[in-house]
C-alpha cells in the first residue's frame, strides 16, 4: 500500500491537486502543444522557412533556366534550319551558274571549232584552187612545148600513121621521165 500512496502523492505533486478528467487532460495536451508550437516558432521556424524559401527559389530558378534553355534551343534549331535552307539555295545557284558556264563554254568551244573547221576548209579549197591553176598552167606549158616539138619534128619528117604513133609514144614516155625529175 505504501507504494500506492507514494504514486498518488507523486501524482498530486506533478499535477497538483487537479483531479484528472478528460477535459483536464485535453487542456493539458493542448497547452503543451501550444507551448511546443511557440517554442518551434521562436527558435526553429525562421530557419525552416529560410530553407524552404531557398529550396523554392532554387526550383523556380531551375524551371526558369530550363524554360530559357528550351527557348534558346528552339531559336538555335530555327536559325540552323534557316541557314540550311539558305545554304541549299546558294548551292542551287552555284550549281546553276556552273551548268550555265559549262554550257556557254561548250557552245563557245563548238562555235570556235566550227569556225576553225570552216577556215581550214576554205584554206584547203583555196590551196586546191591554186594547185589546180598551177597544174593547168604547167600542163599548158608542157602542151605548148610538146606542140612546138611535135610541129618541129613534123616539119622535119613527114608523118605517116606509124610514125605518128611512135612519136606520140616517145613523147608519152618522155613525159613520164620528165615528171619523175
TrEMBL record:
GO terms for cellular component: endomembrane system; plasma membrane; proton-transporting ATP synthase complex. One of its GO terms (molecular function) is proton-transporting ATP synthase activity, rotational mechanism. The keyword Transit peptide does not apply. InterPro entries: ATP_synth_B-like_membr_sf, ATP_synth_b/b'su_bac/chlpt, ATP_synth_F0_bsu_bac, ATP_synthase_B_chain. It is found in: Cell membrane; Endomembrane system. Gene3D superfamilies: 6.10.250.1580. Its main location: membrane. Keywords: ATP synthesis, Cell membrane, CF(0), Hydrogen ion transport, Ion transport, Membrane, Transmembrane, Transmembrane helix, Transport. The keyword Ion transport applies. The chain crosses the membrane at residues 20-40. It is a single-pass membrane protein. CDD domains: ATP-synt_Fo_b. F-type ATPases have 2 components, F(1) - the catalytic core - and F(0) - the membrane proton channel. F(1) has five subunits: alpha(3), beta(3), gamma(1), delta(1), epsilon(1). F(0) has three main subunits: a(1), b(2) and c(10-14). The alpha and beta chains form an alternating ring which encloses part of the gamma chain. F(1) is attached to F(0) by a central stalk formed by the gamma and epsilon chains, while a peripheral stalk is formed by the delta and b chains. PANTHER family: ATP SYNTHASE SUBUNIT B, ATP SYNTHASE SUBUNIT B', CHLOROPLASTIC. F(1)F(0) ATP synthase produces ATP from ADP in the presence of a proton or sodium gradient. F-type ATPases consist of two structural domains, F(1) containing the extramembraneous catalytic core and F(0) containing the membrane proton channel, linked together by a central stalk and a peripheral stalk. During catalysis, ATP synthesis in the catalytic domain of F(1) is coupled via a rotary mechanism of the central stalk subunits to proton translocation. NCBIfam families: ATP_synt_b (TIGR01144). Belongs to the ATPase B chain family. This is ATP synthase subunit b. It comes from Vagococcus fessus.
Amino acid at each position: 500500500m505504501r507504494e500506492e500512496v507514494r504514486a498518488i502523492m507523486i501524482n498530486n505533486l506533478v499535477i497538483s491537486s487537479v483531479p484528472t478528467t478528460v477535459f483536464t487532460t485535453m487542456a493539458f495536451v493542448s497547452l503543451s502543444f501550444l507551448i511546443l508550437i511557440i517554442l518551434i516558432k521562436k527558435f526553429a521556424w525562421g530557419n525552416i522557412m529560410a530553407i524552404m524559401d531557398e529550396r523554392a527559389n532554387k526550383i523556380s530558378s531551375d524551371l526558369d533556366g530550363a524554360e530559357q534553355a528550351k527557348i534558346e534551343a528552339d531559336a538555335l534549331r530555327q536559325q540552323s534550319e534557316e541557314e540550311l535552307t539558305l545554304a541549299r539555295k546558294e548551292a542551287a545557284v552555284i550549281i546553276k551558274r556552273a551548268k550555265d558556264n559549262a554550257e556557254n563554254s561548250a557552245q563557245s568551244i563548238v562555235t570556235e571549232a566550227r569556225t576553225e573547221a570552216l577556215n581550214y576548209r576554205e584554206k584547203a579549197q583555196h590551196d586546191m584552187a591554186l594547185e589546180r591553176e598551177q597544174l593547168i598552167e604547167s600542163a599548158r606549158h608542157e602542151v605548148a612545148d610538146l606542140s612546138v616539138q611535135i610541129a618541129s619534128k613534123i616539119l622535119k619528117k613527114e608523118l605517116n600513121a606509124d610514125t605518128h604513133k611512135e612519136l606520140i609514144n616517145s613523147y608519152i614516155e618522155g613525159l613520164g621521165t620528165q615528171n619523175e625529175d
